[in-house]
């Protein structure tokens, strides 16, 4: 695993890479590869969320749990898949909600969300790698400690951010966020198993833009071209 963090994030998180948990995580990832397992996303994409959204540019955080574990899907942004890959069910439901919130939203033919990241939406998974075809296989190996630090640093050093927490796993991260300084939008997860239990109709995207407007920030253009 090459440490390929964007400079502003390196200043905030650089010390993490010298800690014992991160050294254990690196050793685990090497063992996975030595054992012949394919790991997603590819090494150069692991820190993509940070590359596209520098620390001082973050306006919104959308927290996912695990990278997608199918061929060609994961590329380092939560809920996003590379062009040419069919959008997974959760992302299709996200598009459905967007179309409901914004009458002029056109559902795109792909699931690549880099344009959101470039506008200040940090698309952060709690776990940044996964073994191919094995959901949850890299949980509790150290990534969560790293990404909890990401959330904590954003909470402490920034103000007026919007944290979008979908599902019980993401909601557990609420304790890391100073709600006197930041905004939390939470609902059921967009997965087909839970989308009808409170995700559909929750209007996270228009609520986010309302908050950004009140905070004097540019709103997010959620349309994917």
Q: What is the H/E string?
A: HHEHEHHEEHEHEH
Q: β content, as a range?
A: 5-15%
Strand order, largest beta sheet: 3-2-5-6
**Structural class per helix/strand content?**
alpha/beta
* Amount of helix: 25-40%
Give the tally of β-strands: 6
Figure out the total of helices: 8
* Low-pLDDT sequence parts: none
- State the end-to-end CA separation: 32 Å
**Major sheet attributes:** 4 strands, parallel
What would the principal axes of the Cα set say about the shape?
globular
Average predicted local confidence, pLDDT: 96
Rg value? 17 Å
SSE blueprint and pairings:
Elements: H1 7-13, H2 20-34, E1 39-40, H3 48-52, E2 60-64, H4 89-101, H5 114-118, E3 121-125, E4 130-131, H6 143-157, E5 162-166, H7 167-171, E6 183-187, H8 204-214
Parallel strand pairs: 2-3, 2-5, 5-6
Antiparallel strand pairs: 1-4
Would you write up a description of this structure?
This protein is α/β, with parallel strands linked by helices and 225 residues long. The chain has helices spanning 7-13, 20-34, 48-52, 89-101, 114-118, 143-157, 167-171, 204-214, and strands at 39-40, 60-64, 121-125, 130-131, 162-166, 183-187. Strand 5 (162-166), helix 7 (167-171) and strand 6 (183-187) form a beta-alpha-beta unit. It is globular. The model has no long low-confidence stretch (mean pLDDT 96).
């Amino acid at each position: 695993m090459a440490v390929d963090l964007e400079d502003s994030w390196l200043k905030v998180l650089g010390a993490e890479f010298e800690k014992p948990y991160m050294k254990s995580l690196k050793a685990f990832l090497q063992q996975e590869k030595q054992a012949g397992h394919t790991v997603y996303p590819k090494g150069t994409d692991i820190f993509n969320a940070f590359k596209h959204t520098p620390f001082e540019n973050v306006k919104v955080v959308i927290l996912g749990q695990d990278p997608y574990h199918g061929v060609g899907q994961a590329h380092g942004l939560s809920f996003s898949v590379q062009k040419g890959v069919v959008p997974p069910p959760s992302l299709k439901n996200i598009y459905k909600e967007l179309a409901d919130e914004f009458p002029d939203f056109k559902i795109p033919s792909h699931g690549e969300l880099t344009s959101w990241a470039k506008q200040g939406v940090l698309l952060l998974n709690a776990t940044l790698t996964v073994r191919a075809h094995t959901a949850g296989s890299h949980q509790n190996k150290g990534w969560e400690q790293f990404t909890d630090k990401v959330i904590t640093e954003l909470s402490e050093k920034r103000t007026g951010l919007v944290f979008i927490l979908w599902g019980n796993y993401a909601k557990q991260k609420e304790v890391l966020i100073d709600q006197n300084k930041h905004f939390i939008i939470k609902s059921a997860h967009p997965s087909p198993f839970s989308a009808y239990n409170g995700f559909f109709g929750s209007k996270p995207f228009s609520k986010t833009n309302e908050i950004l407007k009140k905070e004097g920030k540019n709103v997010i253009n959620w349309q994917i071209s």
